[in-house]
Design brief:
The complex is a heterodimer of chains A (about 450) and B (about 230). Chain A has about 450 residues and is an alpha+beta fold. Chain A has eleven helices and 24 strands. Chain A folds into three domains: about 90 residues, Phosphorylase Kinase, domain 1 (2-Layer Sandwich), CATH 3.30.200; about 200 residues, Transferase(Phosphotransferase), domain 1; about 120 residues, Tumour Suppressor Smad4 (Sandwich). In chain A, about 25% of the residues lie in helices and about 25% in strands. Chain A is globular, with a radius of gyration of 25 Å. The termini of chain A are far apart. Chain B has about 230 residues and is of the alpha/beta class.
Chain lengths: ~450, ~230
Amino acid sequence: MSGSEAGLLRPGQGFATTSGRQGRVGALLGAGGQGEVYSVGLDGQTFALKWYHPHYAELDTTLRSRLDRAVRRGAPTEDFLWPLDLVDIPGSRSFGYVMLLRTDDYVSIRDLIAPPPKRLELSLARRATICQQLARSFLQLHANGFCYQDVNFGNIFLDPKRGRVLICDNDNVNIDGAEASIYGTRKFMAPEVVRRETLPNSRTDLFSMSVLFFYTLFGWHPLDGRREAETKLMNAAAEMRLYGEQPLFLFDPHDDANGPVPGLHDALVARWNSLPTRLRTLFERAFGQGLSDPAARVLETEWRGALRIVEEASFACPECGFEHVAEPNPAGPPGVHERCLACTEPLATPAFLQVRDRLLAMTVGATMDGEVLERTLSGVAAGRVEAHPQHPDRIGLRNLTGDAWRAILADGASYTVPPGQVVRVLPGATIDFGRNQGRISQRLAAGEGT
Amino acid sequence: MTKLTFDPAGVARRQLQVILALDCSGSMRGDRIASLNYALRTALPELRHVAADNPEIDVRVRVLRFGSTATWHIADPVPVEDLKWTDVVAEGETHMGDALRLIGGVLTSEAMPGRQLPPVIVLASDGYPTDDIDGGLKAFFEAEHAASAIRLGIAIGSDVDEEILVRFIDHPSMKPLKATNAADLVHHIKWATTAPVKAVSSPTNAPDPLVPLAREADLAPTANSEIIW
């Protein structure tokens, strides 16, 4: 990855893209098994050029037509670092493509599992948001008739400040059903691909995506349980057994042969127990039936509602910081653990706002999506949780909509909440948002009475 | 106030041991051993970088030198981020058989405790073994993890017993890497230590991890040569 080495192309070398744009090769940015990536100048702007090793271009016979199609079709969403233009250089036995340059703001989401201090520390809600963005992007890719083929940690980058996700290495993307060019990456391949019974397709993408989601939330692989722990040397035969022939979910509800090992997987067990039933059920299907039946795999759209609970209803134990997710309950108070799953102290919770089937933890900084109120499109904030400027222990919800709300407190007193104003979050109160109502509740900490 | 019931940093990582066996016989004296030391100095930052890109694995390094005897230069598997290179010195004969026996001795569950990935063994030599190489190879391959190990060989110079390296590698598509000049040596040492670590999380086309590695190894000189331009 050093930029000083001699590469396949010379800095300063000129080239033309297929669409006729003139460019010039800059510094070598990186190199891998397939080729090299250079910074290039094109029409006064800086882009990245991926240039293939001649042998790779020769070996992968459908590479050129895939890239050509990708360029013509355009990126499914702006989260893809997509091929923009092809590049040929006269006299060269290879070719390449131009894409946007990934800036230094982006880090690999592999850093979520890096040892400290490099580890990327993100809240559970932020992790769920990353999964949501990936699900949206992969849905667009699949809906366009493509499959990605090599969904894995190494291809996903994140701008932690802006929360933006970038899906890279799109040169394997192909028409779903066409002969794939690659099997995939170790531990992310679907069992039938590990067994070499099939090449990657959109169903195997769904499996790899579930692994990616599990990794993102847990920092761990879903099939690594007792059996992995007992495998002293992970050779090819052991890998085939664990991920191909006898895969078994760490949290399989019916078979604990590969279950968590006490003392080793305790943090994972606590994380699992902290998640809402709806999300756990999806993981149980993805890594239960979904291991052997591609049709049973969880679709992008199915993850959406389950991940949203994590985004909206997670909160940290004030004693130790371990995050929990409350269970939505339209008919009554939200489900929360009595004691912290990590430090075992009685678990104090924030107040919650239940609107229809949506449950929102009222923690300072949280926003209420407009979609919750069925008024605006998703992505537009309708409310924001804030602390009172003079009394920081008083928590309120600011009305970011254009219409007044009405708050009815437990004692029946009623207040108007004009746009831009904040209403204090008080357990037992109801907020009338116009089209629907929200109910505020809070489980009292143990010892504080009923 | 806090009494966590587990380590929030998660579960220990699986270890990957990279074992380097370096020929330090008399014929390596002078510029060759200097080149070899230089190659290792430049490979280490690269290896650290690659290891950091693979946070799921804990890369450890051991180094063995062989001349008139075979001894550990770095005996305990050192985390790659803590490793500092001290130069090896050339002297005496080429006791490669002893070296293989010594490596075989650490390819056991006892010497490689906990959860391990197949070890990577890089054998670099510039000559012909002067001791009982057959016995050494036999002892090596009898070791518990020898067959699973990724075995790479580097031939330094043109007067090397390549047949021995081929027997050590023992894989149909992986050939010894030939270093006929200092630049090649730097390149091969760097490649042999980093490529297998990279491969752990790289896309793959083949069930046998050595096949894509062999393909990459084949290309290495071409990618470096002047021929393309």
